[in-house]
C-alpha cells in the first residue's frame, strides 16, 4: 500500500466522518484525488465501512464482559459462531488459540442480563463458558499504526 493511502486509512480510522476536503488538506492532495483514493480503498476492501461509536452507558448497556467458550463435546462440529449469531448482545466473536475455542465480547444492561445471556450461550452452542467482567475501559477503538512496505511503523501524530 502506498504511503499516501496509509495516511488516508489512518485519518479515516481516527475519524470516519472526516470530509474529503479535510482529507485533502491533511494529505496535500486535491479533493478529487482523495475521493478517488478513498473509493479505491473501499473497492479493495481496505476500508470496509463506517460506523458510529456508541456510548453504551447512554443506551442502557453499561456492562461489558468477555466470555470464553469451549465445546462440551470436543468432537462436535465447530459451528458455535453460527449457533450464536442470533444473540445480539454478542458484539464480537473471536476464534482463538488456547484452551477455549472462541472469545465473545458482550454488552448487557445488568448482572442479571449477563446471567441470562450466559445461559442462552450455553444452551444455543452446547459450550462451557468462562466470563471476565470489564470494570473500566481506559481506551478502545484506537486507530492502527500502519507499517510501510519495509515493515517499519510510523510515529503517531496528533
UniProtKB/TrEMBL annotation:
The keyword Protein biosynthesis does not apply. Keywords: DNA-binding, Transcription, Transcription regulation. GO terms for cellular component: cytosol. Signal peptide: none annotated. GO terms for biological process: response to amino acid. The keyword DNA-binding applies. SMART domains: HTH_ASNC. This is Lrp/AsnC family transcriptional regulator. It comes from Nonomuraea deserti.
Amino acid at each position: 500500500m502506498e504511503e499516501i493511502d496509509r495516511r488516508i486509512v489512518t485519518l479515516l480510522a481516527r475519524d470516519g466522518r472526516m470530509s474529503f476536503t479535510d482529507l485533502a488538506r491533511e494529505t496535500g492532495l486535491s479533493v478529487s484525488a482523495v475521493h478517488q483514493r478513498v473509493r479505491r480503498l473501499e473497492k479493495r476492501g481496505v476500508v470496509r465501512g463506517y460506523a458510529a461509536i456508541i456510548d453504551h452507558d447512554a443506551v442502557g448497556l453499561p456492562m461489558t464482559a468477555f466470555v470464553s467458550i469451549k465445546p462440551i463435546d470436543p468432537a462436535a462440529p465447530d459451528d458455535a459462531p453460527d449457533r450464536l449469531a442470533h444473540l445480539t448482545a454478542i458484539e464480537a466473536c473471536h476464534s482463538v488459540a488456547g484452551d477455549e475455542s472462541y472469545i465473545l465480547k458482550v454488552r448487557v444492561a445488568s448482572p442479571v442480563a449477563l446471567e441470562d445471556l450466559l445461559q442462552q450461550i450455553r444452551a444455543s452452542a452446547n459450550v462451557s463458558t468462562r466470563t471476565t467482567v470489564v470494570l473500566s475501559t481506559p481506551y478502545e477503538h484506537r486507530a492502527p499504526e500502519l507499517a510501510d512496505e519495509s515493515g517499519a511503523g510510523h510515529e503517531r501524530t496528533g
